[in-house]
Amino acid sequence: MQIQQLASDTALKYNIKYSISGPGVDHPPLNVFYVEKETGNLFVTCPIDREEYPEFHIICYATTPEGYTPETPLVHIIRIDDENDNPPVFDRDVFIFYICENSRIGTVVGQVTATDRDEPNTLHTRVKYRIVSQDLQTYHSSVAFAIHPELGSITVASADLDRETASEYKLKIEARDLDGDELGLCSTVDVIVMIEDTNDNIPQLVQTMYEVEIYENTENIELLRIAIKDDDDFGTPSWLATFTIIEGNEDNTFSITVDRETNEGVLCALKGLDYEQVKERRLEIVVNNEAPYDPASNARGLSMNTATVIIKIRNQDEGPVFDPCEYILHIKECLPRGTVVGNYQARDPETENSEGMRYRIINDFCNWITINHKGQLKTTKMLDRDALNMEDSPCNVTIRATDRSGKTGIGKIVIYLVDENDNYPVITRKNYIMCEDEGPIFITAFDADLPPYSGPFHFDIEEPMSATWSITPHDDESALLALEEDINYGNYTIVLKISDNEGHSGISEIMLHYCNCVIPNGIMCEQEEKKTGSGKQTLLPRAKWQQGQLLSYSLGTDRHLDKPPAGMMNAAVSMNAGEMMNAAVRMNAVETMNAAVSMNTVKGKIGSREGLEVIQGEGRLTPDLDRGGCRRMAQSLLSLRKSYRDLHSEWQNFTNSHLAEVLSVFCEACKKVTFNVPSNLEAGTLIGKVNLKRCLRTSNLVSSTDPNFLILEDGSVYTTNAVSLSSEKKAFSIVLKDLQEHKQKEIHVNLLSHSKKTHKPGEIVLRRSKRRWAPVPTLLMENSLGPFPMQIKQLVSDTSERYNITYSISGPGVDRPPLNYFYIEKETGNLFVTRPIDREEYEQFEIICYAKTVDGYTPELPLQHVIRIGDDNDNPPIFDPDTCTFTVLENSRSGTVIGQMTATDRDEPGTLHTKLKYRIVSQNPLPQKGPGIFNINPDSGSITLVTPTLDREGINKYILQIEARDMGGQSYGLCNTGTAIIEVADANDHAPMCEHERYEASVLENTAGAKVVDITVLDQDERGTPGWHATLNIIKGNEDGAFKIETNQDSNVGTLCVQKGLDYEKNKERRLEIVVVNAAPYVLAPNSRPISTSTCYVTVKVQNVDEGPAFEPSVYILNVKERTEVGTMVGQYLARDPETGNSEGIRYRIINDPCKWITINDAGQIRTTSLLDRDIPDLQMHQCNVTVSATDRSGKTGTGVVVVNLEDENDNFPVIPPQDYVMCRDKEPVLLTAVDADLPPNTTPFSFGTSDPRWRIIPNDDKSAFLTPVGQLDYGDYVVPVMDPNILPVKTGNVVTSDQGAGMGAVGIKAGGPECFEMVKGTKYQTLESQGRGHLTLDSAKGGGSHTLDGRGYGQSAAEAYRYSYSEWQNFTHPQLTERLYLCGQDEEHKNAEDYVLSYNYEGRGSPAGSVGCCTDQQDEEALDFLDQLEPKFRTLAETCIKR
Hints:
The chain has 1444 residues and is mostly beta strands. Helices cover 6% and strands 37% of the residues. The protein contains nine helices and 95 strands. Strands 8-15-14-11 form a four-stranded mixed sheet, with no helix packed on it. It has a four-stranded mixed sheet with strand order 17-24-23-20, with no helix packed on it. A hairpin with a 5-residue loop joins strand 56 and strand 57.
């Protein structure tokens, strides 16, 4: 199909060939368009779908056969007009929505959406929705759902949705385009609405009265099951029941739970019941659902469903019962043996007496008391808190009572030893040194009793030494001893009397050495003389101390000094074993302790072949001493240690560093352990495992007395070096130390080798050995207490058997930072650590070990040795940050995660030292009742909500103290606390309320914009939030829109204003109903009822005002038929006085009439002023607005508007626009189109006819017909008369055409040869003159005569007449091009036609070429003179197409 013709102006000069390219031609889609090379006719080859290709941009070329291109390539746009060929399509095949039963009318269920592929923003894509069908007739008398026609939103239309009646509805939804018109295309979709269950059915008890029996004293037994019935969905919270005992369980003896499978209440007895106390229990149990009850909108409130359970208790024979079951017994210490200290009896529950009972102690670790048949408790010995094994109090004793029938009962006695003042204060230290120039010395006392039987102490000096010495109190436990007069250097015995707080006193002696304390050249207390009244006295002989040298000195008595002078604690006292034992027997407690301490030396020994040796801080008992009195000394020392456990800090500093090693010498070891091992053990071999906790529950330091063995924390025993059991037996000890409790124990380990395997003579024996120059890594506990330097390893090289090997090390911790942490003895290879090490600072050290000869030879390769630092739990968890703030909405449900507190521990990861547990220590403010509101996950630290009781209006902030504890949360773990601040955010759980329910106000009538009243809104939610901001809406009484209400968002005050003036005469009072809601949706608290909206009522009283006249209606529509005679009354427009309601005395006048069509008199009558015709150019608007004023007697005025509409009359006949037609040799029919200036129904259909027998008329449509010859015609010009006999008789004329037209159609036909391609203008012309009111005279140049026609229909201008374009022209061009060309004819700048009409510039002076177009004749230029007579519509085109 041809759609366009391309033409180039250069075709007059060149032989132009046309071609095109682009999409639709040689780009996909291919071959949709093509162009005829010679003619430029553009054709489309197939139908085109606009949805696939909305437009094509093709490039047009005009070239000569030689390839010359005189024209620039042209981009031509072909737009595809939309046709409604696509129905709406839903984006899903099936829509499934869910809605709760009993939903209110208007609740949105869901939304369906359909799209249309046709052109947007047209009727083709304007979709309307409707419900075609819904299967509701079974359950509802009316439809249950409605749909919004434009949005597709489905809403509830019936309040009778009940899941128990119908759980599913099926709807069929239609979407239709063309705005829902029945001619539009449509499609349908199925919508399934699933009705979800709500708790609108309360659980019903199957039985309301139960009676059960239970034996007394029976615990944790199920009594009965309470069955219920609930119509809600199985397994949902609306179906699951909750049972509560509301009466009869005040002692919490019973509990009731729910079997979630059967929904039965399971009643259990948690505690035993006593028949003797009560023989029957009565319980009231109420049943509810887990979900809150949500009744239907028209349902009544339901009462509580309660069951009664009667529990009858059956009696049974019981054993005796102690009362109380736990008896607290306080016993004073030092009571004589056999003293009665209490009475503890059991009774028979049946008889309530204690006769015939027998008592027996079945568990007593302390063995402090006995019990007889009367229940009397007596002491078994004199109990002293200070005695051995009686320090730890209390003591638990279990008693069993047996009655005559053999039934038994158990009771428990908790015994506390009450302290008595049975000890007097004693001096904590016996020997002192006073220097001449240093002043007084401190004397400290200790009392083994507890307050108030201890300090403060009172010190006195016994006579006669009080004159020489003085003592003054210093604090509760110490005093200052001062010298009052000059004395000689020497040793003095001072007797002190010390009393405790209760006056209990004792005598203590101290030995004091007085000297000048000067040590020049290493000599202390040089021998000198001091003149006194008594003469000369010889002081201490010269003494000199060197490291490692034994020191002995005498005090001038037979007794050795058991405490060396100050600064000489490392000296050793030389005494043999016998002297040691004798001294231990005869010395008092302080002397024995000092003697024991003085034995702990760095390098020294007690000089004896037998007895005790202390070498390098390691003590052991020789066999002789172990068999002798050593055990008694150990017991004595242990007793002293317990007695003096709370001594003064000076005493502790003096003893603690040495006492543990001394006690380790004398204390008994734990159970011995024996391992059977091969005779040769390689380094790193696991020997076995020892249970360390069985010996000492808590041990900070685990070591071995033999460096060839390594003991791990779990008790595993490894060899550190290769060990050979040559004697088939080897023994060492595992030393366990609790540094906090100052406890130490040993486990003796014996290694027994297997029997040696005998080999036959000549048998080849393979032996495997491992070099000792590759020890296992060393494990060193961090923060070790020493003593330092402390040996941790011994490095041994196998080459030491052949060479004199010296050892050295280097690396981090040695000669690289951190410096001097380790050193090695060159000769022995013993590796030492010099100080405690923090694992968090240094996890391990990799040192390089060297084994060299004296001359520098290296027989061994350097060894990299790893020293791992074992972790000690020395770092508490740390919260970072220590304070966290979280926010949670009020009314949040249980289990809501609020936030997470996180702590970190610097100790070794993956161990108990870093396994943290969290717990809530405190909560502020505390809950009024029940458990805490918050819970914390012990592992993750996540804080969750326990109960849904958060209410911001009650408490808006909670402060929690969170504890993080390592060691898996054990009590001995380190802990730290952090703070969690939980801020409760506001939720819209309070409905806004009007301050007053009713308001009254008055306003003047006809007043617009006046304020009526302010309405204050009250809301308990947080100020300034969407849950607090109120919105006021007038829901009743404002149907005419006379009022409006605006809300101040800062104050929540709504201001009611008058938007339109009120009329007192119509309504003297207006009553408004105003509802207030929040901007945010309501958030209901759990188990709460729906929030109702607040409504207030405003009564507005209208006050009367004297008004001017008012037109009714204010706008008067006046329809006037055209050609109405002048002065015809066409209507009446009256105003009335609003007060009286009549129109008397009112004068009218027109104050604005732009058309001058009408007048109005004082009676309000409206008449025409001129002949009105719709066809007159000045009246083409066909409507005019006239403003009329009315004035009453008082001079008040009112205005009204008259809208005058001209109605069309059938005063025009159809005409064929003047035009000449060309019929070619093929006799293609000519299409004739008629036009009529009238409006329907005074127009089409037209009827065509002709009186010329040579021609025949064939109807085409309502407005056109085809003209075709009857037979053969010669080439030439023909004038054919065409008429419409149904409208007006037409006389035939010989005129070809006219500039103005006439009531008849005279069509000029030119019959020619093949060259007749263009439309030509006829050679005969006619003129038209106006004669009077629409009568036209047509003068013909051919045919003579004149005809008078009543042709008012063609009285308009030629430009207006040609708004009706020819049908052939319409077929040739785009449907919109006619209007574009018309506008082009009115606008010289062609602004509105640039899309389709291109302006061609003048191609140069003297150019013979004209314009090339579809209407161009290929004759010479003189044949184009007819263009001078073209109508105005084509004048612009003509000026472009011809050279002037």
